[in-house]
Amino acid sequence: MKPEDLLHSLPTQTPKLTLNCPLLDRLLRGGIPCGTITEIAAESGVGKTQISLQLLLAAQLPTSCGGLSASSICLHSEFPFPFRRLHQLSLFYQSHIPNNPLDHIFIQPLHSPDHLLDLLSRLDSIVSQLNIRLIVIDSIAALFRSEFDNTPLELKRRSSLFFKIASKLKSQAQKFGLAVVVTNQVMDVIESSGNLRIGNSGFLCSSGRRVCPALGLSWANCVNIRLFLWREEERVDEEGGDIGSMLARRFIRVVFAPHLPDCSCEFVIKREGVFGVDR
């Protein structure tokens, strides 16, 4: 049996949200699927927030362009929120969206896991009212970073909150046809984890370091799709053989997904947004 034989196709009627880039959409076979939780994991500065902002705007595109013709909400725990960058990106969507794109993005700060759970319980009453089809949480790891001690009792309480949050998100995603995107941080892998494998990835590297998504196996079991972004430094020599500057190349990889194989693509961040690179 081949690995691809284990893939499960999504129902043909499952709507998907475009990343507003043909190459990235091709990587994900159409984009971010509704009714599921998609995690984007990366170290700081690689592009997970950039992609999140792009999705907040892409959700408003008409369905004929791969959007959801809907509003979106961003629950953020990373401060400050990049309002200036969101406004800059919105300028490139105004020709495709009748109204001001920023009028249909709702921003709410998060302060703790319990705060997130409380907000999710109140979302049911406003999702239909505001025509919300995308929820972005940036980032889940920041909420749990200093909230719990490293004791069996605290770790058990943390896992319980993981499952409550994920259960609520999955319930809302399926009930309202939402796309749910959650960003996560990564941490350095100090020692080998033996035979432990999550998805189809033995280990992940970024900026020359071995890393893994934060929050461990309990959280990994809460998401349907995990995308990993990483960065590689490449030295660019100048003419005449002189040592040049360092160039950062960025990549996105499908770590696990029920309907996608292990695949990856290079991307760049431009003023207009995030775009795949065909090499």
TrEMBL record:
UniProt-listed InterPro entries: DNA_recomb/repair_RecA-like, P-loop_NTPase, Rad51_C, RecA_ATP-bd, XRCC3-like_C
Pfam families the UniProt entry points to: Rad51 (PF08423)
Organism: Forsythia ovata
PANTHER family: DNA REPAIR PROTEIN XRCC3
Entry annotated with the keyword DNA damage: yes
Domain of life: Eukaryota
Keyword Phosphoprotein: no
Xref: PROSITE patterns: RECA_2
Subcellular location(s) of the protein: Nucleus
Signal peptide (UniProt feature, chain positions): none
One GO CC term on file: nucleus
Protein's name in the database: DNA repair protein XRCC3-like protein
Chief location of this protein within or outside the cell: nucleus
Keyword list, A-Z: ATP-binding, DNA damage, DNA repair, Nucleotide-binding, Nucleus
GO MF terms held by the record: ATP binding
Gene3D superfamilies named among the record's database cross-references: P-loop containing nucleotide triphosphate hydrolases
The RecA family profile domain, residue ranges: 13-186
Alphabetical GO biological process terms: DNA repair
